[in-house]
Automatic annotation (TrEMBL):
Lineage: Eukaryota, Metazoa, Chordata, Craniata, Vertebrata
Domain spans labelled F-box: 4-50
PROSITE patterns attached to this UniProt entry: APAG (PS51087), FBOX (PS50181)
Protein name per its UniProtKB record: F-box protein 3
Database matches in SMART domains: FBOX (SM00256), SMI1_KNR4 (SM00860)
Protein source organism: Hippocampus comes (Tiger tail seahorse)
Pathway given in the UniProt record: Protein modification; protein ubiquitination
Family annotation (InterPro entries): ApaG_domain, ApaG_sf, F-box-like_dom_sf, F-box_dom, F-box_SCF_Substrate_Recog, Knr4/Smi1-like_dom, Knr4/Smi1-like_sf
Domain ApaG residue range list: 272-411
Pfam families, per database record: DUF525 (PF04379), F-box-like (PF12937), SMI1_KNR4 (PF09346)
Keywords: Ubl conjugation pathway
GO cellular component: a single term: cytoplasm
Length: 411
């Protein structure tokens, strides 16, 4: 008579190999079947990989805690288990951002706040009468925003007569700005700029044409008779997307660091022109605080960067004496820009002591463009109203550089 096969009768090594393919929930379930599997399911190496995967814990942290990997996982799960699908992504994003800031923008590190507690977040929910999304709560368990200082963590922009720097609000300050007025009901501010009063908001409910948990810049409809009609420049569909996309742009160098601040210029890699040893590249930035959907007016600044090739001989160094650009807008119109260039500074090659090239001061100018905006009509309680929105990423197009005039300095 054939002997019945029972998995728990296998030797420990193959059993542990099988268990290594299970996630933490399956390991907990299988530990309830019998005594032997209960003992094997607590094998330290099994939980080491799970602690690394879900909580980003290292061997050093485990040793410092004085606990086994199993007990350490259970401790973190008891505290942060509701966020397990978000925690590793947001924790890694925060680690990447703080490591980057420590090297490039050290002043910002001191402004970051310690994480909020579950009790504090629960108290805020009771105060505003709305549930905070779990990805937002998870991020604020790691860092509770930043102090109300300049420069702001969420990016800056500077013109000759205009400056913006957005602070990532702590949850207590954000709750103080929670909106209940018509047109902005159930909206929580994420950022704030002292100079412009500009904030990005997150919608906490499906109301007034907004989708739940999307982030946006509010923009009053200047053509509507009702001042509560608000258009939106949408910046993200969820807090997780909004924050991690921004962090990725910062740590990968997509956003330049200027004067120890993060400037939210978007660079189109196809928007580069090289003439001989001189390379010119252009990046743009959208200014929602100077823009409107109705009437259609979209304000951009552009930044032109000029540098010499690393292998260029010193004798070909030149200055930008005058400029002439042709700029093609999204509707096909061509605009011409002429004027003096940057005089008095020789262009630098990437490997020189003055590496990095020249940023043209005259390059920070407004460009008005027309764009097709999405109209969103809603039903139910909002029937008859129209919430008009512009998808921000749909019109962050870089200026196309068609030409320029470079003059050698007089000798």
């Amino acid at each position: 008579m054939a002997t019945e096969f029972r998995m728990e009768l296998l030797p420990s090594d193959p059993l542990l190999h099988i268990l290594s393919f299970l996630d933490f929930r399956d390991l907990v379930h299988i530990s309830s079947t019998n005594r032997r599997l209960n003992e094997l399911s607590k094998h330290n190496p099994l939980w080491r990989s799970l602690c690394s995967k879900h909580w980003l814990l290292t061997d050093v942290e485990r040793v410092q805690s004085g606990r086994s990997w199993f007990n350490l996982f259970r401790e973190y799960y008891d505290d942060l288990g509701r966020y397990i699908q978000y925690y590793s992504v947001l924790k890694r994003a925060w680690e990447q951002l703080t490591n980057f800031l420590r090297q490039r923008c050290p002043r910002m590190i001191a402004s970051l706040k310690e994480g909020a507690t579950e009790a504090e977040l629960g108290s805020i929910e009771a105060q505003i009468g709305c549930r905070l999304p779990d990805d937002y709560r998870c991020s604020y368990r790691i860092h509770n925003g930043q102090m109300l200082v300049i420069p702001g963590l969420m990016g800056s922009m500077s013109l000759s007569n205009h400056y913006r720097s957005e602070v990532l609000l702590d949850v207590e300050t954000a709750a103080g700005g929670f909106q209940q007025k018509k047109g902005m009901r159930r909206c929580l501010p994420l950022t704030f700029c002292f100079h412009t009063g500009l904030s990005q908001y997150m919608a906490l409910e499906h109301t007034e044409g907004r989708r739940k948990f999307e982030s946006f810049y509010p923009c009053p409809d200047q053509t509507a008779q009702d001042p509560s009609v608000i258009d939106m420049f949408i910046t993200g569909s969820s807090f997780l997307e909004w924050f991690t996309t921004y962090v990725n742009n910062v740590v990968t160098g997509e956003y330049p660091i200027i004067r120890d601040q993060i400037f939210r210029y978007v660079h189109d890699k196809s928007c580069v022109t090289t003439t001989g040893d001189i390379t010119v590249s252009v990046s743009t930035s959208f200014l929602p605080e100077l823009s409107s959907v109705h009437p259609p007016h979209f304000f951009f600044t552009y930044r032109i960067r000029i540098e010499m090739a690393s292998g260029a001989p010193p004798e070909v160094a030149c200055q930008l004496d005058s400029r002439y650009w042709k700029i093609t807008t999204s509707d096909g119109n061509v605009e011409e820009v002429q004027g003096p260039g940057v005089v008095g500074t020789l262009l630098a090659s990437p490997d020189s002591p003055r590496a990095g090239g020249v940023d043209s001061a005259w390059g920070r100018q407004a460009i008005k463009r027309a764009f097709v905006c999405e109209s969103r009509r809603v039903s139910g309680h909002d029937a008859g109203k129209s919430s008009r929105v512009c998808q921000l990423h749909d019109f962050l197009h870089a200026v196309r550089v068609h030409g320029g005039t470079l003059h050698l300095p007089q000798t």
